[in-house]
């Protein structure tokens, strides 16, 4: 399996290490049995995500995540770009009463699942969709694993 994941933060602070973001994306690709993939994950400010949202989806204002599946041919494998707005993620996390890292994990998983081919309806129906169910299962597993790993490394110190 070859999973190349490039992570960049363009003028924004992200409370997840780039290495962790790449690990999350690779875990989703493995779970979805994607053999070859090249993903670019960019953390961007609200102005940039709002421009992308307007240009490509026809919606006004910033959103949390936008994904583009660019290719899925046998020679290249799966190719996609994911854009995430950490400021929107922080606001969503505060509203939900969860850590920003957990919400960012959810957005990375969500973005990768879109690139893999999942989709969901707009509105409240998204929360009952197969994509949302799959996403939440993966997020729970990844967050639990990260917490267990963090507890081990703190106790080893």
What's the helix and strand layout?
Elements: E1 2-9, H1 18-31, E2 36-43, H2 46-57, E3 65-73, E4 77-84, H3 86-96, H4 100-116, H5 130-156
Parallel strand pairs: 1-2, 2-4
Antiparallel strand pairs: 3-4
Keywords:
157 residues; alpha/beta; Collagenase (Catalytic Domain); 4-stranded mixed β-sheet
Question: Would you give an account of this structure?
Answer:
With 157 residues, the protein is of the alpha/beta class. The chain has one domain (2-152): Collagenase (Catalytic Domain), CATH 3.40.390. It contains 5 helices and 4 strands, in the order E-H-E-H-E-E-H-H-H. Strands 1-2-4-3 form a 4-stranded mixed beta sheet, sandwiched between helices. Helix 1 links the parallel strand 1 (2-9) and strand 2 (36-43). The protein is globular, with a radius of gyration of 15 Å. The termini are far apart. The relative contact order is 0.15.
């Amino acid at each position: 399996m070859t999973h190349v994941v490039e992570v960049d933060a363009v003028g924004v602070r992200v409370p997840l290490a780039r290495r962790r973001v790449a690990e999350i994306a690779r875990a989703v690709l493995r779970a979805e049995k994607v053999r070859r993939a090249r993903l670019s994950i960019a953390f961007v400010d609200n102005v940039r995500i709002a421009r992308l949202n307007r240009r490509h989806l026809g919606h006004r204002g910033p959103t949390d995540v936008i994904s583009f599946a660019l290719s899925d041919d046998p020679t290249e494998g799966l190719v996609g770009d994911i854009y995430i707005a950490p400021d929107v993620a922080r606001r969503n996390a505060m509203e939900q009463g969860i850590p920003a890292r957990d919400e960012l994990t959810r957005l990375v998983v969500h973005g990768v699942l879109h690139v893999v081919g999942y989709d969901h309806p707009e509105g409240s129906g998204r929360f009952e969709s197969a994509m949302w169910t799959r996403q939440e299962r993966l997020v729970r597993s990844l967050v639990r694993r990260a917490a267990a790993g963090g507890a081990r490394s703190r106790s080893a110190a």
